[in-house]
Design goal:
Order of helices and strands: HHHHHHHEHEEHEEHHEE
Strand content: 5-15%
Structural class: alpha+beta
Distance between the termini: 80 Å
Number of strands: 7
Radius of gyration: 66 Å
Length: 501
């Protein structure tokens, strides 16, 4: 959720910018117009003020001229002579005019005013005062004419500037707002179209259509809404990844549920087989218990018969029968113990002697056309349950011999050390295992041979599991089967074992 909020931040920022931009632009335009009007007014004020100052200067010149004309008229009405003291106030007025701080007063005007002031003080070279006053009056009038021309030029300049300022004000008040409105309308059209497209995209998004905005549309859209489209593309990509992760999780959960269901079904089948095996075990334990007494009687009778026979060959055969009866008795006892959950104890087993004894006894149970062979090093001794090992190998040899067609072929037992284990393999030249058995594995009561019980390989598998070993089934090329038992076998010291029972 935090990630989505972070990715949506540019989108909200773009939307806020989109709605605030027209308001900001309008505000800026208004401020610019007001600032321009203020600047124009200030400029007009700055141009009018010099005109007012110059008008006041001209009025002062006119007042001095009227005063001079009055003095001159009084002199002409009288004796025609003028007292110089009457001209002193006029000179003082000229001095006051010169003392006024006027930045626009030229040097020529200042010089002429100083000359006029000199005439009024009688400093013109000894002429009559009335003549000096008349000359000063002419100079003053000439100066006034010049100042009037300058004043007229100032007024013309102010009028021209005022006309320009009026046009500029009209432009700012009328043209600039109209241009701003037109620009805003065009901006609105450029924004409104992409926003409509965005609305259509959101409708598709509600239908789980995670198509992004095309790059061409991004290039053609306004720069104002491009951040919104980029944010939309980021949001769509994020939603698409989330949807994909959701589908992957659903598939993973479906696979997990399917695997758990298959495991439960397999366990159910195994439990059912375990129940059947337990029932078979209980029956076999009862049969074993009932068979031990007759076998003990047979064993005792064979022992007594051996003592009465002097033929060495017959004695060897009776010894083999007695040994086999003893093994059967031991095996039946183990079956009873297994039913009571009493495991067979481990003991050192010399593999070569054990296999040779086993093949000697099996020789009488297989067809004469089946050749029994062994290839076992003499130094292999392992701590194993001997009865279980003999029974497992016996089942494998009998199964292999019974699979031979026409009772012709060979069966071989090989053994090789592999680290802390020994690989015991039983190979034959028969037709090999069915493909179904290699695919599904060993199952009790499932046999590919007519008349088979399907318990031989199941017992071998149980033996390997009890000793933490492994069972592997394979077919040889071009024909034949091979069963490999991997049994734990740490290195033990080798002892001499006598051949025979």
């Amino acid at each position: 959720m935090n990630t989505l909020a972070a990715e949506g931040a540019p989108y909200h920022l773009g939307v806020r910018r989109m709605f605030w931009l027209p308001i900001v632009v309008s505000g800026v335009l208004v401020v610019l117009v007001l600032a321009a009007l203020v600047a124009i007014s200030w400029h007009s004020f700055a141009r009018i003020q010099p005109v007012e100052v110059h008008s006041a200067h001209i009025r002062r010149l006119q007042a001095i001229e009227v005063h001079m004309e009055d003095v001159l008229l009084r002199g002409l009405r009288g004796t025609g002579r003028l007292d110089p003291k009457e001209m002193l106030p006029l000179g003082a007025e000229i001095d006051n005019l010169l003392a006024t701080d006027r930045p626009d007063m030229s040097a020529a005007e200042t010089t002429r005013l100083e000359q006029i002031a000199g005439l009024l003080r009688g400093q013109a070279g000894g002429g009559r005062p009335i003549d000096d006053l008349s000359t000063a009056l002419d100079e003053l009038r000439s100066l006034q004419d010049r100042e009037r021309r300058v004043h007229h030029m100032l007024l013309s300049s102010v009028a021209k500037d005022t006309e320009t300022e009026l046009e500029l004000s009209l432009f700012l008040v009328v043209v600039l707002p109209v241009a701003g409105v037109v620009a805003l309308l065009r901006l609105r059209r450029r924004i409104e179209g992409p926003l409509n497209n965005l609305g259509e995209l959101l409708v598709h998004l509600a239908a789980r259509d995670y198509r992004p905005v095309p790059q061409a549309a991004l290039d053609e859209s306004a720069a104002l809404v491009q951040p919104v489209f980029h944010s939309y593309n980021g949001l769509v990509e994020r939603l698409r990844r989330l949807e994909e992760d959701h589908r992957n999780r659903e598939q993973t959960l479906e696979q997990a549920v399917r695997g758990a269901t298959e495991a439960l079904l397999k366990q159910s089948r195994q439990l059912a087989r375990s129940d059947r095996l337990a029932a078979v075990g209980a029956v076999s334990a009862g049969l074993a218990h009932e068979l031990r007494n007759p076998l003990a009687g047979i064993q005792m009778a064979c022992t007594k018969l051996r003592r009465a026979i002097l033929d060495a060959d017959q004695m060897a055969r009776l010894d083999a029968v007695v040994a086999e009866l003893r093994r059967l008795n031991t095996m039946l006892t183990e079956r009873v113990d297994a039913a009571r959950h009493a495991p067979e104890p481990l003991a050192p087993v010399h593999l070569k002697s054990t296999v040779d004894q086993l093949l000697s006894l099996v020789r009488y149970q297989v067809p004469e056309g089946v050749r029994l062979e062994s290839d076992i090093p003499d130094d292999l001794t392992c701590r194993l349950p001997e009865g279980g090992l003999r029974q497992a190998l016996l089942n494998l040899v009998l199964n292999a011999s019974q699979s031979m067609e026409n009772g012709q072929g060979w069966v071989e037992i090989r053994a090789r050390r592999q680290g802390d284990a020994v690989l015991l393999s039983v190979s034959d030249s028969g037709p090999g295992f069915p493909a179904e058995l290699l695919t599904i594995g060993v199952r009790p009561f499932a046999s590919g041979r007519v008349g088979g019980t399907g318990l031989g390989l199941a017992m071998v598998r149980g033996f390997t599991q009890d000793i933490n070993g492994e069972l592997q089934l394979a077919n040889r090329q071009p024909c034949g089967a091979q069963v490999t038992l991997r049994v734990p076998c740490p290195c033990l010291p080798v002892k001499n074992h006598a051949e025979g029972p």
